[in-house]
Amino acid sequence: MTLSLQCGEPRATLPTTDLFDLKATCRFFGGNRPINPATLYRGIAANRYPAPIKVGPNASRWLRSECEAALAAMIARRAEQ
Description:
With 81 residues, the chain is of the alpha+beta class. It is built from three helices and five strands. It has helices at 22-30, 37-45, 64-80; strands at 2-5, 12-15, 19-20, 53-56, 59-63. The strands form two sheets. The chain has a three-stranded antiparallel beta sheet with strand order 3-5-4. A two-stranded antiparallel sheet has the order 1-2.
């Protein structure tokens, strides 16, 4: 599904995506026991987790698709070992 923006010509089409806040992202990667936000940010620095998107001066969000891709890469690395 896509959203159409009518901000003048030409017409831009953007994919719809789910955004996670910090708590949801920690829950996504931790499951029943969410990871600590410090663990998430250390993982971002180590390129283990995707970087957030700044949506405001004090607000960051993560794309669900990028989180799912990072988790799939972790699973693939585990399968290779």
